[in-house]
Amino acid sequence: MKTFSEAIALGRVSPAEALGIFDQLEIVAVEFMLGAWRGTGFPTGHPLDGVLEAYGWHGKRFDHADQVHPLVFTTPQGGTISVNPVWALPLVGWLGRWPISQLAALGPIFRSCLVLFSTRRSCARLRLTHYRGRASATMIYDSLPICDVFRTVDDQTVLGLMDLKGMDQPFFFVLRRQEEPAPRDRTDHPLDHPPPSFPT
Question: 85-95 and 100-112 are packed helices; what angle lies between their axes, rounded to 10 degrees?
């Protein structure tokens, strides 16, 4: 069975290997997750591998258990902005069908439009849930059928597993704690309109 460090060194593991690594790791308390985290990929051959990073994904921010910003992106100005997942995730999922080689060109366009999807409002919450036989901190989206379950690698790192209703294969990612969070962009504003629809 591969370890987390071995998987990072290899650059990619199979979905089964990723689940094995996830199951080896220790559970996470809700309080442990509070603060700002920088996100990176954990490639397993999932269709979303590399997509969020191509569009400037920065990470997640947990102000407290009921005040969570699940999608934080880097702005062209170098700050960070919280994005409403109800708007952003359908768009990212649709654009994720494009070849990775083309995402680098689309990334700057997406980042320049981030303000259109931005919000100051919390879009998720942290709770303790049971998953694969153990209870661990879980980020539950407010308006989407998505749960991100966390397991701890060390005091500064967690492995996340995104469980999306209707998605056969879980999506994995890594969060690393930020001691000094990046400055927030002041242009973010709430978007409270219905989400857009995209071709299926």
Answer: 150
C-alpha–C-alpha distance, residues 195 and 176, integer Å: 30
Residue indicated by tokens 């597993």 = 161
Residue 183 within a domain? no
164 within a domain of the structure (yes/no): yes
pTM attached to this predicted model: 0.82
Q: Print the domain residue range for 141.
A: 4-177
Q: How many domains does the chain have?
A: 1
In a domain, residue 120? The reply is: yes
Placement of tokens 């400037």 in the chain: 56
Q: What are the C-alpha distances in Å from 48 to residues 30, 72, 89, 133, 181?
A: 26, 17, 11, 26, 25
Rounded distance between C-alpha atoms, residue 90 and residue 48, angstroms: 12
Q: Nearest Cα to 138, choosing from 72, 58, 65, 71?
A: 65
Tokens of 198: 């995209």
pLDDT of 25-84, one tens digit each? 999 999 999 999 999 999 999 988 988 888 889 999 999 999 999 999 988 788 898 988
CATH number of the domain to which 113 belongs: 2.40.128.580
In a domain, 199, yes or no: no
Per-position b or e across 33-66, b if 16+ CB within 10 A of its CB: bbebbbbebbebebebbebbbbbbbbbbbbeeee
Q: Which two tokens stand for residue 146?
A: 């998505």
